[in-house]
Amino acid sequence: MIVVRLLPAMVVGLILLFLVLPILVVMVVSFSSETYLTFPPPAFGLRWYNAYFASDDWLQSTWLSLRVAAAVVVLATFFGTLAAIGIPRLPSALRILASALILSPLIVPVIIVAIGIYYSFARYGLVGSPTGLILAHTCLAIPFVVTSVGANLAGIDPRLEQAALSLGATPSGTFLQITLPLIRPGILVGALFAFITSFDELVVALFISGSGAVTLPRRMWDDLLFQIEPTIAAVSTLTIVLTAALMGCAQLLRKRAPT
Amino acid sequence: MSKAATVRCSARSVSAPLVLAAPPLLFMLAFYAVPVLSMLLRSVSDPVWTLSHYASLTGDTVFLKVFCNTLYTSLIVTLGTLVLGYPVALSLVRAPRWAPFILVLILLPFWTSVLVRSYAWMVLMGRHGIINEALLVIGIVNQPLRILNTPLATQIAMIHILLPYMALPITNALRQIDPSLTRASSGLGATPWATFRQITLPLSLPGVAAGTLMVFVLGLGFYITPAMVGGPREITLSMLIAQQVDQLNWAYAATLSAVLLASALAIIAAFYRLPGVSNAFRMSAR
After folding, report:
1. Which of A58, A180, B57, B150 has the largest count of CB atoms under 10 Å?
2. Residue range(s) defining the domain that contains residue B197
3. Which CATH architecture has domain A55-256?
4. Alpha helices in B29-129 (DSSP H)
């Protein structure tokens, strides 16, 4: 009888193990002292973290990815917030077209976006430059900002804005003093999503980063083609910790946002 | 209000949102929509206006094999995420004390990049990977199995990556079921299984449909995971497109892209007519 009652818990436990095991294994392997990927490692050490921090190639790619992601955060948050405010107030036909355009990167397979951008950017000399990556990643990140700010906006009591207007505030004053503070959590969540979208992006980078703008995911990919040494496990662990921390922040912010 | 004032007023109510929305729309047009559309245009304009690229797909055995393989992979992955995702969603709703812990275990891999998770599966499934070592120690096999670079490897890794997209919409749907319904059902003498089959399961179907839609459509476009763990033999449509671009076969790559995009859109259009799906889909998109 007790077995029957515990069975569902065991099934769910096994599924959850399936979910986290790969991540945990990468983290453990990154602390291995050996060149070869054995599990569990014979001894532990920081050898592969030292290898990462001693490599100019890895550090340059990390720095590039951080700079690109920072620029994407600024552009995508600005454009995405404008779109989230403007598009719902457009007349209906235009509104449907505009949201289809803005949200479509969420469903169009990324390989199509990647080769389309590669096809056109090549003609304007935007391949192999950080600028090309920033422009492309911004397009991929804008939908995340629009959904996050849009959800936040939809949760705001419209009477607050009406009250400000009826008490004599100008439309721009109302926006700056009432609306903007209320949607700040949504904007911050959108900015975090934009950062991670760019920082983790690989498929577009495979086509347009060339040899002049090798991002961190691109360097991991290139390395994997030649060897599976644990430096990549160390880099993976560092990115897992970074993205998990940022997404954790986003999750906490989202709970506080009135959606 | 005079007529002129009304006109001015409505003109302003259109123009202010337009001024706000125009910069992001122009940006997306210039750096995303026009590039992608002009690439797709190559499928009908290369070398002259023609539909021959599409017509020749029907007799193209490579394309047909890859297309079927892509649909099949997506189908298996959707079924896999459903079988594994439903119990997890149910436990999130039924065991509130454990829910925060379970949610973290779902979200931690969800927040990790596809590249890193595919790499993790390479480490696990390799010839001397942990799965093979464990099987050898237990004595189930005498020599390492070939798991990496097989379709099975792609399916397992994709199920792992897409599972949250199935589990989270189902969780949302389950949360919206009025608890008094299940209480009434068991109060009237139904067994837990009957209550589940006749109350919980039917009411959770919009979540199942939304999850199925999302996993299937995302699965169709997968590139990194099959390229890393699936090996060169059983390729997906995305991999074939990338290969064609490498060989500068733009017309063929564009035709394949249009087919991939049309398949994704057709599936979304079909699912959106089902009751409750668009709502569940919108909710989980947040």
Report:
1. A58
2. 50-285
3. Orthogonal Bundle (1.10)
4. 34-45, 52-57, 61-94, 99-111, 114-125
